[in-house]
């Protein structure tokens, strides 16, 4: 059994599956860890994902929900989740149920046997992915192996010591997940692969193979290679994108701005739980006194 575990889940428009995913995480995690928390980052979902998560968190104190005011993408969510995790081990899984939470069982066994970083290896991607998606996944694996990672499938689920995930990186997009594996292996961590179940997405929409995502990953490969071989750019520890206490957490890089010109009505959308206050405080204006009447 793991000493303590944070199960982290990025979510965007996953109303159809999020409740089942969190409930499974609570059940499976409690059976394999002495202390447990489940953290979900709601990346400005447009459906009922946020409301469902708030209801679950109200019932179970082990569930922490992070709400972002504007969509930032999966890597920003993952970065935030790693920073918010409090326990010794961190298990990253998706909200779409392509990987069942029971995949934690063989991965936790590998960690108990001495592994520091466990990657869930998908052996049936040929049956699930389109040829284009398989090509993207294969290229990602080759890039990561070329830079020193002993295991492939960097886009899959992971179980690792927290310090190996919440660490300094140079990649700005999804290649950061591969970079974390590379830097862990080069630092001497024991990285292993464990076969896990992998299913077709039942709901929602996958975005990992969009052209802009792929282009950024290729650029990040060059940045990481330069950093490892030349020392520049230097890696830095990403700052979390949200601040505040568990509950409705406001995005740090999307703070509400004071409107210009005509004063707008303050919004209560992002007020902390249990409070009703505006997102910004309007500046009080005082009447100007004509110069000739001043004393």
Descriptive account of the structure:
By secondary structure, this protein is of the alpha/beta class. The protein has one domain (2-230): Spore Coat Polysaccharide Biosynthesis Protein SpsA, Chain A (Alpha-Beta Complex), CATH 3.90.550. Helices cover 35% and strands 17% of the residues. It contains 9 helices and 9 strands. The strands form 2 sheets. The protein has a 7-stranded mixed sheet. Helix 6 (131-146) packs parallel to helix 8 (175-186). The termini are far apart.
Please write out the topology.
Blueprint (H helix, E strand, L loop, with lengths): L1 E10 L6 H15 E10 L6 H11 L3 E5 L6 H11 L4 E4 L11 H9 L4 E6 L2 H4 L2 H16 L11 E4 H4 L9 H12 L4 E6 L14 H20 L11 E2 L6 E2 L44
Parallel strand pairs: 1-2, 1-4, 2-3, 5-7
Antiparallel strand pairs: 4-6, 5-6, 8-9
Helix pairs in contact: 6-8
CATH class: Alpha Beta
Mean pLDDT, to the nearest integer, reads: 83
Count the helices. How many?
Answer: 9
CATH superfamily: Spore Coat Polysaccharide Biosynthesis Protein SpsA, Chain A
Instruction: Point out poorly predicted stretches.
Output: 243-295
Q: What percent of the residues sit in helical stretches (DSSP H or I)?
A: 25-40%
Oligomer: single chain
CATH architecture term: Alpha-Beta Complex
General shape: globular
The succession of helices and strands, N to C, reads EHEHEHEHEHHEHHEHEE
Global structural class: alpha/beta
Number of domains: 1
**Compute the gyration radius: what is it?**
22 Å
Distance between the termini: 79 Å
Number of strands: 9
- What percentage of the residues does DSSP assign to strands (E)? 15-25%
């Amino acid at each position: 059994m793991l000493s303590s575990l944070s199960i982290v889940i990025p979510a965007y428009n996953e109303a159809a599956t999020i409740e089942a995913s969190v409930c499974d995480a609570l059940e499976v995690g409690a059976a394999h860890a002495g202390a447990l928390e489940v953290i979900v980052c709601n990346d400005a979902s447009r459906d009922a994902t946020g409301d469902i998560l708030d209801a679950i968190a109200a019932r179970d104190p082990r569930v922490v929900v992070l709400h972002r005011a504007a969509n930032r993408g999966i890597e920003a969510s993952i970065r935030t989740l790693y920073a918010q995790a409090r326990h010794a081990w961190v298990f990253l899984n998706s909200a779409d149920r392509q990987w069942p939470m029971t995949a934690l069982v063989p991965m936790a066994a590998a960690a108990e046997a001495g592994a520091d970083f466990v990657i869930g290896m998908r052996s049936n991607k040929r049956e699930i992915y389109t040829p284009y998606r398989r090509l993207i996944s294969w290229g990602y694996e080759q890039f990561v192996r070329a830079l020193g990672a002993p295991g492939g499938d960097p886009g899959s689920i992971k179980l690792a010591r927290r310090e190996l995930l919440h660490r300094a990186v140079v990649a700005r997009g999804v290649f950061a997940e591969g970079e974390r594996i590379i830097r862990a292996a080069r630092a001497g961590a024991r990285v292993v692969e464990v076969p896990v179940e992998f299913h077709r997405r039942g709901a929602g929409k996958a975005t990992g193979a969009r052209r802009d995502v792929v282009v950024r990953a290729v650029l990040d490969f060059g940045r990481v290679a330069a950093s490892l071989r030349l020392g520049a750019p230097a890696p830095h520890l990403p700052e979390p994108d949200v601040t505040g206490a568990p509950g409705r957490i406001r995005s740090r890089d999307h703070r509400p701005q004071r409107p210009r010109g005509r004063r707008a009505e303050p919004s209560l959308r992002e007020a902390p739980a249990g409070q009703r206050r505006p997102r910004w405080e309007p500046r009080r204006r005082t009447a100007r006194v004509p110069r000739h009447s001043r004393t």
